[in-house]
Structures are given as structure tokens and as C-alpha cells.
Amino acid sequence: ICCFSEFKIYPSRGRTFISADSKTHRFLSSKTESLYHQRKNGRILSWTPHYRRINNKGVVQGAAKKRTRRNVKYNRGVVGASWEAINARRNEKPEVRAEAIAKAKAKAQSKTRTATKA
């Protein structure tokens, strides 16, 4: 990649400059090398990809923003219980629910007693 213009440099192309601090700079062409040595800024030159990226050139606005789809929740019954029955159980008072649980426990215990006697 050219250190000035940010264009891709293909094999056997470009020029290399080694500065006094031993850093290597690869340039696409003599044009970019010349502009670098003139201390020009690649962000200001409108033909460089860096300028185009900063100033949003060539970006299609419609494709830039992706729409997200939200999941829609549906309340529906399960096999053996309708939605109304499920909702009624969910909304009943805690005392009524505790009473129903106690009755179910007593019924289960009586079943196990009869099964062990037989």
C-alpha cells in the first residue's frame, strides 16, 4: 500500500524511499513520492482514498444503513391448554394457587398410600 495515496502497489511497481530514521516508505508513483517530499497532505487531495473516506465520497446512503427486523411475540396456547387457561392461572391470587397446590399434594399422597397398601 502506498504510504501517501493508500492505493495498492502491485509487484514490480512503485518506488521505495528510506528516510534518515531508517523507516521505509513505499510510493505508487513518482507523483506520490514528489507530493510526499513537498510535505503535502493526502487527506486534502481529493483523488486519494483517504480524502474520499473522510468526506463520504462514493458511499451509497441507502446501502450504508441496514434495516433490522424485530421479532413479534404472539401469545398462544400449548397442547392441552388454551391461552385463556394459561392466562387465568397466571393471574390468579397466590392464596388460591397455594390452596390448589395443597389439594394436589394431598391427592398425590392418598394415591401413593393406596398403591402401597395394594
How would you characterize this protein structure?
The chain has five helices and two strands. It is rod-shaped, with a radius of gyration of 38 Å. The chain is about 45% helix and about 5% strand. A hairpin with a 5-residue loop joins strand 1 and strand 2.
Order of helices and strands: EEHHHHH
Count of alpha and pi helical runs: 5
* Helix proportion range: 40-55%
Largest sheet: 2 strands, antiparallel
The SS-based structural class is mainly alpha
Name the poorly predicted regions: none
Radius of gyration: 38 Å
Would you tell me the overall average pLDDT? 85
**Total E-strand runs:** 2
Shape: rod-shaped
- Indicate the proportion of strand residues: 5-15%
- The first-to-last residue Cα distance is 88 Å
Strand arrangement, major sheet: 1-2
Compact description:
The protein is mainly α. It has five helices and two strands. A two-stranded antiparallel ribbon has the order 1-2.
Comma- or semicolon-separated keywords:
2 strands, 118 residues, 5 helices
SSE diagram, text form:
Blueprint: E1 15-18, E2 24-27, H1 30-37, H2 49-54, H3 61-64, H4 83-91, H5 94-117
Antiparallel strand pairs: 1-2
